[in-house]
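ok so I'm stuck.
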Amino acid sequence: MRPERLFHLPMVSAIALVWAVLALLGCGSDEPVQTVVTRTESFTFLDMGVNTALTEALREPLANRLGSVAEERRGLLDLTLSDDGFMDRHLPVLAGLNLDLNPASGERREHDIVRLTYRYPVKQTPAFNLVQLVFYGSTRRPLVFRIHANQAGSEILAALTEKYGPPETIEAKNDPDTHYRLWRRSGDVLSAVSSLDRFGDPEYLIAFYFTENLKDLVRAEKEAAAQVEQARRKAGKSAF
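replied:
not stuck anymore, here's the structure
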């Protein structure tokens, strides 16, 4: 046997085993496979908050309110609101988590998530053009909700202000037509970005970030990476 095979075979087997177990834990049933902690409620969308679990019982009312769904299990998870460094300046915790999820090296990294995308919610909910709900696969708890709204988004902003109080308002660094509105509660963040589309009509991006749930995902990935590294080192030692 060639010398490099002494390292390659046991290391690959160990690493493959770790990731295979993780993949099994993150797919299939809607039942959570990790113990979850009840957290202080912050923001809600369609009655879903930080402690809401993605279950079969939840899917039907979502379909009734948002229409047909496209579901993705495992995938990329980009938390950014824009490409002008806004998150780095104003939401450093989320910026750090985003860097954990999307390494600066450019490595494509898929995550243990369940992403529900509703592309035609306007039929049931006229204010929404697109809705994405992202849950952590292992706990079924929400990570990020994103809602793209049309001109009716101004009414949504009014409703959010009435419910959560006046937001922090920040003008985009290089675009006077773009404004960010931020609410912070119990560590979570609710953002609303208003801008103009290519026709000059108002459009809105509303995002809910459930920070502690995101930290759970990042923590689990780091622990998995540590297991892989440990398996690699054991494989190297076993070659001798």
